[in-house]
Amino acid sequence: MSLTTAPTRPRRTWPAALGISLGFVALLWVLELVDALPGVQWDDDGIRPRTGDGLVGVLLAPLLHGGFDHLASNSLLAALLLFLVLLGGIGRGLAATAVVWLLGGLGTWLVSPAGTVHLGASGLVFGWLVYLVLRGFVARRVGQMVLGVVLLVVYGGLLWGVLPGQPGISWQGHLFGALAGAVAAYVVARPGADTSRG
């Protein structure tokens, strides 16, 4: 096994990564503001396990939140982790996000109890965190390994959220988001993966 250092990224990567991550969180706030308007009720459009309509929720759930407190609890960490994911390459970061979004949502749809609705960006947050922790070890890049270890030390306690416990919290969404993050690290960051899009 050989270790390499990450190639220097073009200067334009960090402004694009920052713009996309802040834009994503701003979109979440706009959607929640609209959802708070009289007559608007999007919270039922999340993941409803093993129903046809619930599959649409796989696409919508990370964009919807159960109120401003729920959104606020996800916003800062979502912006930070998405920025760090995209900083490793916009194309790779978007590919990793797509894997986490879809696989995490499908896993939640498959195993969660019937009659429940799952929504919120926390599945993405768990997926991005696990992706960042594992990415450097999969890619064999020292700088990314160091970042992964730092993130694990600072935010690793969040990963207890994959276990059942707190009522009203979708541990299934957390668990399958985290597992999807591991899959994304292997698929996107492994040596030989297509990195032609950055």
Condensed summary:
The protein is an all-alpha fold and 198 residues long.
Number of strands: 0
Poorly predicted runs are none
What is the makeup of the main sheet?
A: none
Overall pLDDT confidence: 90
The helix-and-strand class reads: mainly alpha
| Total number of helices | 7
CATH class: Mainly Alpha
Annotated CATH homologous superfamily = Rhomboid-like
Radius of gyration, CA atoms, in whole angstroms: 17 Å
How much helical structure, as a percent, in the residues?
Answer: 55-70%
Count of discrete structural domains = 1
General form? globular
End-to-end gap: 23 Å
CATH topology: Rhomboid-like fold
The portion of residues forming beta strands comes to: under 5%
**CATH A-level architecture:** Up-down Bundle
Order of helices and strands: HHHHHHH
List the keywords.
mainly alpha, 198 residues, transmembrane, single chain, 63% helix, 0% strand, transmembrane helix, Rhomboid-like fold
